């Protein structure tokens, strides 16, 4: 479940950064159109692919439930962190991406 | 035309949400607590000690006990301890009266010593579970009311989605410290981000009560014989009747192992032994509902109790049963391990918060108009009183329930009823308090009081039992320790909320004109 959580959180962060408003708030600049598309693709890709570790570990029934739970909670966490600790929100996504190979190695 | 439709939906969202909001808040909060039903029961019956699980030992202990205490009973039931509920529960019925339920004698055994545990009488977490769909009303009125509330919730969710114009644009938006705007942002955030859970929980509650809500298909296929419908849905285990000749019941353990092998290592939740002293004794083993997401009411393996012969293995579920079972399973969350259970709990709290913020927004918008004159019309004052009593008052009532559990003497007559009384007395008093005090003070005082009650629960537990945090953490009784710590955390959170409420700026009409604060009629 950890790997799915890390991927979902990073995915939502990427989607969040692909909007002008949040990119401005977090990185103090406007994203270039190419960057925006890249972030959007990465975000959707991470969210979609995160189904796989959840299902691979727990099977389809439980795996999908866990994936849904992780999907909702990672978005909630991100949205609650953004106004209060924006740097931490970004940092977590970065750390999550770095840690995900370790988590993948630990689960498979 | 489109705008007109959205306006109509906003109107429906506003008023359906208001009228049922108070009730739905209580249903959601107690239902959320019910995810930790067994854990709460463990805290409320500290006499039942937690031991490392050992099904073989538990089974032989239960069989020995029943053989000794109720050898001639008509039926035995054994519920094995699991990681959430440490007690080994045995139940027996001396005589089976067809068409009548009851005459059950229930004991909780210590799975190691085999002695019956004299636990204090308490409903435990079952109270919250029962309350969240029966609402402490006589059958079937409570179920009807909660089902109607679920339908209104479903309507409120759908109209809420239609009313919310910028679901994707505002997906990540939460702007705190901006008064009314923040409440709306918060309402939208917990509503949209946890929407799959809200839809699942609301829809599944309607599926669970479908025989009550939508009887037409059942009546169409079964006529007035609803009994036949329930027999199909919950297949009875048709066991052979007693022959009246004495028999010798075999050890239950080999049957337990055989059943687990049938289920590819699945767990046994419950055993029923029919006519244990008869030559025609039969043993039914029911699969634990924590094994799978899709709930199956009839997953059983049956044996002849005298020969050990495998009589019957229940068939696989049909597709409609599996669909119904998956809604039931998803709603109940029996299958959830500790981490997923906490996620369920957080989702439930998010739903509760969504309803609470909605109620606050309704009042806040209308209060703004009267902020200058300082006089509130009666209907707004009524909503304010109900808001305070239904939210902070309910928290006080829950805490009072836990306090009563520790403070009422163990041998007190009708003790478990009095715990429930304490809950409702505290709730009524908070309503009275909300009527007497002005709005803001009412909130601050009730939230502070609830904070105090919750934060002091670990202390209360340490003073009244031997299972204080130091002991429970040392012995690894995580359920006991987790309850204390969660109460402490809730206390701290409520204290923060009270502090915020105390230091919040009074709603000023000026803020209405501030440029970022365009109050649109979208969620009127």
Q: How is the topology of this model organized?
A:
The complex is a heterodimer of chains A (108) and B (524).
Chain A: H1 2-17, H2 20-27, H3 33-49, H4 51-84, H5 86-107
Chain B: H1 2-34, H2 37-44, H3 55-69, E1 75-79, E2 88-93, E3 104-109, H4 126-134, H5 141-163, H6 180-193, H7 195-208, H8 210-213, H9 216-222, H10 226-233, H11 253-262, E4 268-274, E5 282-287, E6 300-304, E7 310-313, H12 319-332, H13 338-370, H14 378-407, H15 415-436, H16 439-455, H17 457-464, H18 469-475, H19 478-503
Antiparallel strand pairs in B: 1-2, 1-4, 2-3, 4-5, 5-6, 6-7
* Major beta sheet, strand line-up of chain B: 3-2-1-4-5-6-7
Rg over CA atoms of chain B: 26 Å
The helical percent of chain B reads: 55-70%
Oligomer: heterodimer
Question: What is the global morphology of chain A?
Answer: elongated
Stretches with pLDDT under 50, minimum 5 residues of chain B: 508-524
Pfam families (chain A): DUF3325
Keywords (chain A): Membrane, Transmembrane, Transmembrane helix
Transmembrane segments (chain A): 37-57, 64-82, 88-106
InterPro entries (chain A): DUF3325
Task: Give structural notes.
The complex is a heterodimer of chains A (108) and B (524). Chain A is mostly helical and 108 residues long. Chain A has five helices and no strands. In chain A, helix 1 packs antiparallel against helix 5. Chain A is elongated. The model of chain A has no long low-confidence stretch (mean pLDDT 91). Helices cover 58% and strands 7% of the residues of chain B. Chain B has helices at residues 2-34, 37-44, 55-69, 126-134, 141-163, 180-193, 195-208, 210-213, 216-222, 226-233, 253-262, 319-332, 338-370, 378-407, 415-436, 439-455, 457-464, 469-475, 478-503, and strands spanning 75-79, 88-93, 104-109, 268-274, 282-287, 300-304, 310-313. Chain B has a seven-stranded antiparallel sheet, with helices on one face. Chains A and B meet through helix 1 and helix 4 of A and helix 6 and helix 13 of B.
């Amino acid at each position: 479940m950890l790997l799915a959580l890390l991927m979902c959180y990073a995915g939502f962060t990427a989607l969040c950064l692909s909007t002008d408003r949040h990119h401005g708030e977090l990185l103090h600049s406007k994203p270039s159109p190419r960057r925006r598309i890249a972030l959007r693709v990465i975000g959707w890709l991470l969210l979609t692919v995160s189904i796989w570790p959840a299902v691979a570990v727990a099977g389809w029934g439980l795996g999908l439930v866990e994936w849904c739970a992780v999907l909702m909670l990672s978005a909630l966490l991100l949205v609650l962190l953004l106004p209060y600790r924006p740097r931490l929100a970004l940092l977590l996504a970065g750390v999550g991406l770095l840690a995900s190979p370790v988590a993948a190695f630990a689960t498979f | 035309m489109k705008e007109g439709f959205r306006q109509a939906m906003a109107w429906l969202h506003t008023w359906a949400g208001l009228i049922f909001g108070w009730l739905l808040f209580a249903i959601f909060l107690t239902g959320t607590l019910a995810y930790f039903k067994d854990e709460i029961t463990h805290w409320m019956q500290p006499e039942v000690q937690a031991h490392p699980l050992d099904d073989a030992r538990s089974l032989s202990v239960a069989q020995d006990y029943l053989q000794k205490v109720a050898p001639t009973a008509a039926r035995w039931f054994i519920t094995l301890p699991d990681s959430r509920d440490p007690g080994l529960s045995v139940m027996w019925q001396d005589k089976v009266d067809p068409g009548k339920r009851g005459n059950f004698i229930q004991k909780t055994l210590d799975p190691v010593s085999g002695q019956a545990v004299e636990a204090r009488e308490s409903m435990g977490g079952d109270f919250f579970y029962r309350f969240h769909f029966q609402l402490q009303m006589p059958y079937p009125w409570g179920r009807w009311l909660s089902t109607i509330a679920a339908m209104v919730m479903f309507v409120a969710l759908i109209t809420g989605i239609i009313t919310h114009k910028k679901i994707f644009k505002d997906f990540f938006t939460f702007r705190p410290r901006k008064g009314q705007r923040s409440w709306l942002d918060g309402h939208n955030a917990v509503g949209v981000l946890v929407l799959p859970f809200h839809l699942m929980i609301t829809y599944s509650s309607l599926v669970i009560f479908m025989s009550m809500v939508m009887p037409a298909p059942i009546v169409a296929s079964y006529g007035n014989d609803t009994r036949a419908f329930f027999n199909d849905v919950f297949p009875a285990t048709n066991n052979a009747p007693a022959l009246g000749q004495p028999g010798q019941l075999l050890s239950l353990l080999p049957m337990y192992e055989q059943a687990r092998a049938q289920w590819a290592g699945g767990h046994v939740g419950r055993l029923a032994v029919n006519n244990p002293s008869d030559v025609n004794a039969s043993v039914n083993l029911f699969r634990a509902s924590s094994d799978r997401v899709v709930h199956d009411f009839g997953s059983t393996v049956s044996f002849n109790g005298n020969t050990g012969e495998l009589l019957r293995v229940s068939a696989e579920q049909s597709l409609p049963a599996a669909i119904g079972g998956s809604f039931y399973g998803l709603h109940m969350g029996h299958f959830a391990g500790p981490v997923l259970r906490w996620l369920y709990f957080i989702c439930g709290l998010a739903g509760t918060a969504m309803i609470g913020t909605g109620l606050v927004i309704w009042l806040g918008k209308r209060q703004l108009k009267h902020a200058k004159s300082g006089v509130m019309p009666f209907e707004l004052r009524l909503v304010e009183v109900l808001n305070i009593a239904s939210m902070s008052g309910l928290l006080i009532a829950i805490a009072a329930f836990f306090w009563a559990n520790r403070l009422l003497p163990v041998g007190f007559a009708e003790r478990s009823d009095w715990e429930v009384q304490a809950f409702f007395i505290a709730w009524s008093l908070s309503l009275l308090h909300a009527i007497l005090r002005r709005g803001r003070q009412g909130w601050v005082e009730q939230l502070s009081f609830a904070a105090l009650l919750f934060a002091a629960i670990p202390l209360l537990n340490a003073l009244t039992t031997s299972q204080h945090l130091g002991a429970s953490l040392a012995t690894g009784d995580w359920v006991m320790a987790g309850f204390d710590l969660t109460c402490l955390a809730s206390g701290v959170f409520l204290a923060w909320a009270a502090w915020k409420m105390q230091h919040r700026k009074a709603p000023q009409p000026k803020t209405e004109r501030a440029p970022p604060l365009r109050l649109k009629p979208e969620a009127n």
